[in-house]
Design brief:
Elements lengths: L2 E7 L2 E9 L1 E5 L10 E5 L5 E5 L2 E7 L2 E7 L2 E6 L2 E6 L2
C-alpha cells in the first residue's frame, strides 16, 4: 500500500500527494535530537508528533519531490500522513 500526504493550514488544504513510498520530515521533540529526520513508510504505526520547519521529501519510486513545510503537528494513521501547520 502507498502513502497519502496532505498539508493543511488555516486556509485549508495546501498540498495533496498520493501513491508515495516514503515521507521524510524533521521532528521537533525534546526527547530526540532536535531536527533529526524521521521517515514514514507504508504500514507505519499510528503516530502523532511535532515537526519543525523543513524541506519534506516525498519519495515515489526513484522520484524525490522536495516541499517547504512550516512547523506543525504530523499525524500518521492508516497510510495517511497529515501535517497540520502551526506556523
Amino acid at each position: 500500500m502507498a502513502l497519502t500526504f496532505d498539508i493543511v493550514s488555516a486556509k485549508g488544504l495546501d498540498l495533496h500527494e498520493e501513491r508515495l513510498d516514503r515521507v521524510v520530515v524533521r521532528r521537533r521533540e525534546e526527547r530526540f535530537v532536535p531536527g533529526s529526520e524521521f521517515a514514514i513508510c507504508s504500514g507505519h504505526a499510528p503516530l502523532l508528533m511535532q515537526t519543525q520547519p523543513c524541506e519534506a521529501r516525498l519519495v515515489r519510486g526513484e522520484q524525490v519531490t522536495v516541499v517547504e513545510c512550516g512547523a506543525g503537528v504530523l499525524e500518521v494513521l492508516d497510510n495517511r500522513v497529515t501535517l497540520a501547520l502551526t506556523s
